[in-house]
């Protein structure tokens, strides 16, 4: 194993230097040239579907070359205090919305890129982001993270101005526009009504000519499918129309899920061999060895040292306990410690930014009965994936077999009574959206059916696809800043 580690470290170093050089050269290029460079380096395959989209990216790059963003003033706080229910500032804005946005449109339209999982949307957005002309301030964020920051800042602003009813959205919009003319969101999605209403107002301001922000978003959904079946969706429709008006909507219809393309898989996910009981001495010893091996692997390089017990992180003023860790390299949790309690997306985002490697121990069989834990695990995985973090796990079974019917799980949650009885039942999932629209296996669609909500079903299927990618040598070896 030691040799293995040394080989990884050297290769990682070389690749890191190569990436730095590539990064520097891409700053001057347009997205087509940047793509060509990566193909020539052997880092990307030449994908004809992605190529078709590159010309739109390069057109936007060219328009941005001449773009002079407006000077954005900070709104007068007095105007944002509610006198008539809605702030005067926002009333003006609503009138503009009603009158069909007569105040004009932004001369440069952004891009809304949507398509199936793993087909390269994020990669294309990152290429574009690297090539944004230098005179324009830019920001690239995961959408979850953006919404978290928004809620946090909104709370701070109310405290700062000592007015809890202050209409903070114009202030938020001015801060965003002053700091970033080009705003890139990875995985744009809207799942709850509060976010939907906030976004509608915020984007109306940001994408107006007065604020001049250019939006680049990736999503798994077409704009018309955003927040589908959501509460008070009708109020969100103007936001969809606005996105369609202020961005070029592009569908990336590449049939390749690059995460599924065979690559050597490392054994980051451990589970017992068939017939071996999870709590047997042999298996527990093997689990300990696995945890030790991967802890040592992650705990290398700058910052490495002895592990600390019960370190704490602060999330929104609360303390989050990390049972075993070495900052910023590795953190260790049991599944129960990580997902068994009521944790928020903010907790998982904080963890993902504080540590690079995670060891999640003792993942039991999971069923509809512990849907909340599965939800939290998905949120955690999304956060780690987006931060380009790594995970190693010990579990009752391989991820593809871990999600089962509740009646098949024994009381200890680590053994099954029998093999799944309804082997053929996934046939009924032939017409499922996950299969027809997104190309997932019927078995994945069947397992995702533990969720009622479409967005959650999709997030589950995507998490399985991401776990596959996070178990590859490519993922483990890639420098962490590759996606930033
Ligand atoms: N042309 C390509 N050649 C090789 N690898 C690629 C290519 N396009 C994308 N990839 C790789 O495939 C993986 C998935 O791509 P990416 O994350 O961009 O997909 P995505 O469409 O954003 O997926 P999701 O919707 O799940 O977020 C990444 O590791 C990416 O670097």
From TrEMBL:
The keyword rRNA-binding is annotated on this UniProt entry: no
Coiled coil: none
Keywords for this protein: ATP-binding, Nucleotide-binding
InterPro entries: ATPase_AFG1-like, P-loop_NTPase
A GO MF label: ATP binding
Domain of life of the native organism: Eukaryota
GO-annotated biological processes: protein quality control for misfolded or incompletely synthesized proteins
GO (cellular component) term, any one: mitochondrion
SUPFAM superfamilies found in the cross-reference section: P-loop containing nucleoside triphosphate hydrolases (SSF52540)
Family: Belongs to the AFG1 ATPase family.
Identification of the protein by name: Mitochondrial ATPase
Organism: Australozyma saopauloensis
């Amino acid at each position: 194993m030691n040799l293995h580690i040394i080989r990884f470290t050297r290769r990682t170093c070389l690749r890191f230097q190569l990436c730095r050089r590539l990064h520097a050269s891409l700053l001057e290029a347009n997205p087509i040239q940047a793509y060509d460079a990566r193909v020539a380096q052997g880092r990307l395959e030449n994908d004809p579907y992605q190529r078709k989209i590159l010309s739109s990216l390069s057109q936007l790059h060219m328009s941005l070359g001449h773009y002079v963003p407006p000077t954005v003033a900070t709104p007068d706080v007095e105007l944002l205090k509610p006198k008539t229910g809605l702030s005067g500032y926002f009333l003006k804005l609503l009138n503009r919305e009603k009158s069909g946005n007569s105040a004009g449109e932004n001369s440069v339209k952004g891009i809304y890129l949507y398509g199936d999982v793993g087909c390269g949307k994020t990669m294309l957005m990152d290429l574009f982001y690297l090539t944004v002309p230098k005179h324009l301030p830019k920001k690239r964020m995961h959408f979850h993270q953006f919404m978290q920051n928004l809620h946090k800042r909104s709370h701070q602003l109310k405290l700062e101005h000592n007015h809890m009813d202050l209409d903070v959205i114009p202030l938020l919009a001015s801060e965003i526009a002053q700091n970033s003319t080009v705003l890139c969101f990875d995985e744009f999605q809207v799942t709850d009504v509060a976010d939907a209403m906030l976004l509608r107002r915020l984007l109306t301001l940001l994408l107006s000519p007065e604020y001049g922000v250019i939006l680049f978003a990736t999503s798994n959904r077409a704009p018309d499918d955003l927040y589908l079946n959501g509460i008070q969706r009708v109020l969100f429709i103007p936001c969809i129309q606005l996105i369609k008006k202020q961005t070029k909507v592009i569908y990336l219809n590449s049939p390749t899920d690059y995460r599924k393309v065979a690559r050597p898989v490392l054994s980051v996910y451990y589970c017992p061999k068939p017939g071996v009981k999870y709590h047997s001495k042999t298996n527990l010893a093997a689990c300990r060895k696995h945890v030790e091996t991967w802890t040592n692997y992650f705990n290398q390089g700058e910052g490495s040292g002895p592990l600390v017990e019960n370190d704490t992180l602060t999330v929104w003023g609360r303390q989050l306990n990390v049972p075993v860790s070495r900052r910023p390299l590795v953190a260790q949790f049991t599944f129960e410690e990580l997902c068994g309690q009521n944790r928020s997306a903010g907790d998982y985002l904080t963890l993902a930014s504080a540590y690079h490697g995670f060891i999640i121990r003792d993942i039991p069989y999971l069923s509809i009965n512990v849907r909340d834990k599965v939800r939290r695990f998905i949120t955690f995985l999304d956060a780690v994936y987006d931060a380009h973090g790594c995970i190693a796990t010990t579990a009752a079974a391989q991820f593809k077999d871990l999600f089962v019917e509740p009646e098949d799980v024994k009381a200890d949650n680590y053994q099954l009574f029998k093999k799944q009885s309804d082997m053929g039942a996934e046939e009924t999932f032939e017409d499922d959206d996950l299969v027809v629209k997104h190309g997932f296996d019927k078995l994945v669609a069947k397992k995702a059916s533990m969720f009622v909500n479409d967005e959650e079903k999709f997030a589950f299927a995507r998490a399985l696809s991401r776990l596959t990618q996070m178990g590859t040598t490519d993922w483990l070896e890639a420098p962490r800043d590759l996606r930033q």
